């Protein structure tokens, strides 16, 4: 498995090596030792899955604040997405910066989005299924987000991103500058 890092510390992409023959292929999709070496010793407690029927569906940007902050290991099992992680760690030199990765069943890539990052995606194909593991349980009181198209973030969403696809909750999300800080870079770095 290849591990890809970014200029923003924290997120990692895991690209599996596939062993193929005439029947198809086999790949390891998770190795705790490899994950822990690059991302820390996270324990996954819940698996989530979403299906988006139309291409251009936008979900996010979401995160859970402490004490129920979540890290997410995201993969696409049908269709394709542009997956985005935004650094929301106050005091980070990359605060408000983002990374993106195209996730598809064909490339098998998984994106690790640690606590301190907001997460969102845009579907690139119809009938897209996204599956992800999280490090804490869903908590409605800690469930927060920010506007997907915040001009200060300047995320380069695909042309087909459809604002009409947003949920009522995501249509009402504030800008990043309107959110209080919930994550502090120095505190998270000390825990890593």
3D structure, described in words:
The protein is mainly beta and 192 residues long. It has helices at 32-39, 168-171, 185-191; strands spanning 2-5, 12-15, 18-21, 24-27, 46-52, 58-64, 72-78, 81-87, 89-90, 98-103, 110-113, 117-123, 128-134, 143-145, 183-184. The strands form four sheets. Strands 1-2-11-7-13-5 form a six-stranded antiparallel beta sheet, with no helix packed on it. Strands 10-8-12-6-14 form a five-stranded antiparallel beta sheet, with no helix packed on it. A two-stranded antiparallel ribbon has the order 3-4. The longest helix is centred in the first third of the chain and has 8 residues, at 32-39. The chain is globular, with a radius of gyration of 16 Å. It starts with a strand and ends with a helix.
Features:
mainly beta; 192 residues; 39% strand; five-stranded antiparallel beta sheet; globular
Using only C-alpha atoms, the radius of gyration works out to 16 Å
Which regions contain 5 or more consecutive residues with pLDDT less than 50?
none
Beta strand %: 35-45%
The helix count comes to: 3
Q: Per the principal axes of the C-alpha atoms, what is the gross shape? A: globular
- As laid out across the biggest beta sheet, the strand order is 1-2-11-7-13-5
Compile the SSE list and pairings.
Layout: E1 2-5, E2 12-15, E3 18-21, E4 24-27, H1 32-39, E5 46-52, E6 58-64, E7 72-78, E8 81-87, E9 89-90, E10 98-103, E11 110-113, E12 117-123, E13 128-134, E14 143-145, H2 168-171, E15 183-184, H3 185-191
Parallel strand pairs: 9-15
Antiparallel strand pairs: 1-2, 2-11, 3-4, 5-13, 6-12, 6-14, 7-11, 7-13, 8-10, 8-12
